[in-house]
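User: These chains co-purify. Model them together.
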Amino acid sequence: MKSEVMVGNKAVAYAVKLARANLIAAYPITPQTTIVQYLSEFVAEGELAAEFVNVEGEITAQLACLAGSIAGARAFTATSGPGLLYMHEALHGTARYRAPIVMAVANRGVRTMGPDHSDMMAQRDTGWIQLYCENNQEVLDTGVMAYRIAEDAGVRLPVSFGLDGYVLSYTAEPVEVPGQEEVDEFLPPYKTEYPVLPETFDEDIERYKRHWAKGKSIDEPFTPLAADESFSHLTMVNWGGPHDQQWRWRSHQEAMTRAKQVIKEVDEEYGRRFGRSYGGLVDEYRCEDADAALVAMGTVASTARAAVDRLRRDGKRVGLVKLRSFRPFPREEFRRIGADVDALCVLDRSISLGDEGGIVYNSVRSALYGLDERPTVMGVHLGMAGKEVRVRDIERIGERALAERGGAEPPVRWV
Amino acid sequence: MIEIRFHGRGGQGAVTGVRVLASAMHLGGRYSQAIPQYGTERRGAPVVAFCRVDDTRIRERDLVHEPDIIVVLDPQLSRSVDVARGLKDGGLALVNHPGSYRDTGLSGNFKVATVDATKIALETLGRPITNTAILGAFARATSIVEMRHLEEALRGELPARIVESNIAAMRKAYEGVSEAVDVSKLPKRVVAVKESQEPLISYSRDVSDWRVHRPVVDRGACVGCQRCWIYCPETAISVVEGGVEVNYAYCKGCGICAEECLVGAIKMELEEE
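Assistant: Joint model of the two components:
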């Protein structure tokens, strides 16, 4: 297998090329820009047969991908920080349409340039699947897997994956690039079963109307047709059908729940085919006999592995739970892990201002509610607005988690 | 794990330097990592970049604070930046400097090797871009990377038309680097650190030590068109009595004025030590 030293942004571009995306629409923003530069080179050199659409902003980028996806294209976009916020409204649209678009986000702060998870956290409730990567290899592998997850008949949801801006986007390290043939076998071409094409538009509308007239129940098993109905522009056309839209949210939530299993299965299959897998929703590192476990996402998890190794060398039983899938959130996994450790210490690279603690911290805490034996849950803010995350900082956090395990929950800390 | 910190100025190629080095180390069968520290990109401003190499995949994502090796791409830099900060005992400082280890002004429990990378770069590339030359010196001084791997990595990173001249620079520096000499007995010198005391974008900041070349105006040839005044990114040029004058405290020696002058009234001359 070919191995090349490359920056995270190039790993993203390779993933998109290997996935044979048909449509790329993105607007440049630091630190995402070179993703699009590499892709435009692939297209210009004829290495990737994709439509490259130059757009005037992130909303248009997302909407161009949406239109292409509905028509049956495998679409890709990428953005970062403020660009992602500008895209926000369109993200809801894509999710409601259940369009399986894949988006890379070079995570950065908003009103700051540094790495930070605030950008993707602000899209938490748009209905996109959110995966976070800890190294450039995982970035490439996740980019390929993202399409399998997004296009799965039981899921049909857009997938975003984050790579920490600068820390991964501009850092070069060895990445193995799988062969195109192997990826083709893993990821067959995208085929939407109900494309909306200009030439058959009237026919399509009639078909949807007929289906609509049959009435529907949210308890119906999920079918591609039901996904198709989520093309919500059709209900904006007033044809007198029942206008209850709430079912869409419930159906979407059910797809999110199903996505948990699909993310795990796709990761396992990827592991069988390519020799690398990432634990599905969470990756547990040295947790077997741990008294306390750290919880981290993105590159903080990478640095935390080094810290855990140092703590273990001193006989301190600390493990790491890398949260790979933030949406859907692996509640069941945290309940299982939480029953086995005395402390969970959640490292958040973001904050929901006005509440106590980070966003991941509160999700973990909520997942553990009602357990007979609950671990002490601790919250730490670190690495925000580009603040450096050092191994020794996480070592100290680990020591503290051990010392305070089993006791009352300490106030949320800032490192 | 070996940790390396590059110090340079914007435009000298520190970022490309660490990337080529990381690629070359990986070609040698090891894991590596090249980290640029991006800030306010400004030609001539002090920059740092980092490189790690290890036998297993590197998980550390913080910057390098206690390097085993430091590489300094600019001879003037150690006057205003504490380049040896955190350098491990027994470590190595590889410095682009025309003089010997004594002239670098560095002292401490480490060794210093020098190479006149600016001269080599000017001779082979015609520009004071010292990153590739210093890599040749690095291969010789450290023995942790092979020249053939550096050359292969360079071909992957640089545009084809400048590969051969850069390889020539690298080879010249490989031959030209001095022995590494222990500097623990040399007297300590206090570095007047200018970093972080003023914002990087500050036109009230003295940048005279960023220069390799200085613009010299021939008042007789100058026609007073003020093109240089328009193009100077540092607003270091003033128009005085119809002719132009350079304020050398704020001139970083980028050469844009000489490039833009239509009558050839501005010449870039090598700074003297």
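The CA atoms of residues 5 and 50 of chain B lie 5 Å apart.
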